[in-house]
Amino acid sequence: MSHIGCPLKCSCPSSPPSCPPGISSVLDSCGCCRVCARQFNQDCSPAEPCDHIKGLRCHLKAGGDPNRGLCRAEAQGRPCELDGRVYQHGEDFQPTCEHQCTCVDGVVGCVPLCPHHISLPDWRCSRRRLTKLPGRCCQEWVCDDDNRIAEVEPLPDAHPQEHTDLTGNELLVAPSTSWDSSATAPYQGKKCQKTTRSPKPVQIVFAGCFTARRYRPRSCGSCSDGRLCIPSVTRTIPLHFHCPEPERDDFTRNVMWIQRCSCSQRNSRQGLSSQAEFFNLPNDIHTYTH
């Protein structure tokens, strides 16, 4: 051993340690490996040195292990006072969940614990806000666009009264009379009316079978210049259908789910009227034989 408690040959981890904010990365007392420095009032040893940057050194315990001690201030520094509390020179503390602070000779220095740069939510999110979530410390981006499928527990009634009926291979786009009459009002603005959603979760029916869960599908409104308002951003989701007839098996079917709408190049008089309840989208829903 070159020094008491030090090895003849250094053996260190391949990557340097990842120390918490405000904690220095220092060489151990043997000069071998980088470690996270021990802080005020923490145990120390040659392999676990105190944070000399904060004026701490390892004070060995009298009559105890000669290689173990406590980190104390090397020179008597002035204490710090913050929000009515007194902290000793070299002491680390967290006044809030957002900051880690250190008292150094009467001066409090703090580093933030929350990230400076927060990743933005998905680009499809049109309504984003920066907020603190319940039970969390740091601010986070929240998307108020609920692009997820709202699901609730299956209904106990095997014959529900309220369905969204997908007959044949058609996809529901604008059941405007029962969802939002303003969504299909003509000549209001120059773009598609806001994409609407069913006001409450409904079951989707296909070929006499219905989903065991309820959903809130989106629909497209209308374009004020007479063009068709059609889906522009969609995704495919699998829906599981339950068939009440004992001779028919339950099945899963891929369905196109609307996320955003836009005005097409076609005039509504060339296609469907604005009051159409269903809209057949080529290549999105394939034909299946049951």
From TrEMBL:
InterPro entries: CCN, Cys_knot_C, Growth_fac_rcpt_cys_sf, IGFBP-like, VWF_dom. Coiled coil: none annotated. Keywords: Disulfide bond, Secreted, Signal. Its main location: secreted. This is Cellular communication network factor 1, like 1. Residues 2-74 form the IGFBP N-terminal domain. One of its GO terms (molecular function) is integrin binding. It is found in: Secreted. Residues 78-144 form the VWFC domain. It comes from Cyprinus carpio.
